Amino acid sequence: MKAISLCLAALFGILSAGAAHSATVFADKTAFLSSLADGAYTETFSATNPPTYLLGGFGYTASVSSGTIYDSGTFIGNFNSTASMTLTFTTGNFYAVGGNFFVTDTNDVFVANPITVTLSDGTTDTFTPGSVNAFRGYISTVPLTTLTLSATSNGFFNTMDNFVVGAPIPEPAVTGLLLGSLGLVIRRNRRRKA
To answer: Which of 118, 106, 45 is nearest to 78 (CA)?
Structure first.
């Protein structure tokens, strides 16, 4: 059994070492959601409860680099237009995150302005959402510890809604490789005992 554990640990290490640590980016919500395993969770920010969230086994806190979190009752953002907003993932199981990331003015009105999403795995994505419903999703090969939103222009506020967290569906090739390797280890151990 110890040999099986060591082989699996080595295999996971090899797979992790060979994988790039930047996330796959999704602009289509349906494609993103279809890539997630059962148990994904969506936070709509409809209840006033920042800065800490915990549901469905996923926990995170929201903070801003200067000032406080702004909760409109339908989305969260920041009060300081020069501040970035960061979600810190506290449960260690964040591989897939997504949502509506956008910019608002002082009246909570959407502004078509670039916003930058930065993930702890090194992914940086700058884009200009076309509406509050524009979606962006990310699936990483390593556990994510933070997601940071930064508006690219002063005078506007980082905003997010419908934040989705989950685990990706394992790719068939990886699952097949792991099962095949496990089978070889078991077979080898049986031959030794015989």
So the answer is: 106
State pLDDT tens for residues 41-76.
899 988 766 688 887 788 999 999 988 888 888 899
Predicted model pTM: 0.77
Return the ∠ at Cα 17 (arms to 15 and 23), rounded to 5°. 85
Beta bridge partners of 110: 104
Amino acid at 112: A
**Distance, CA of 133 to chain centre:** 18
Q: What tens digit of pLDDT does each residue of 75-128 get? A: 999 888 888 999 999 998 899 999 999 999 989 999 999 999 999 999 999 999
Q: What distance in Å separates the CA atoms of residue 182 and residue 194, rounded to the nearest whole number? A: 19
Q: 21-170: which CATH architecture?
A: Sandwich (2.60)
User: Three-state DSSP class for 159?
Assistant: strand
> Do 140 and 23 contact (CB within 8 A), yes or no?
yes
Q: Decide: 95 and 140 in contact? Cβ < 8 Å.
A: yes
Say which amino acid occupies 21: H
- What ranges do the domains of the chain cover? 21-170
**Distance (Å, whole) CA 37 – CA 16:** 20
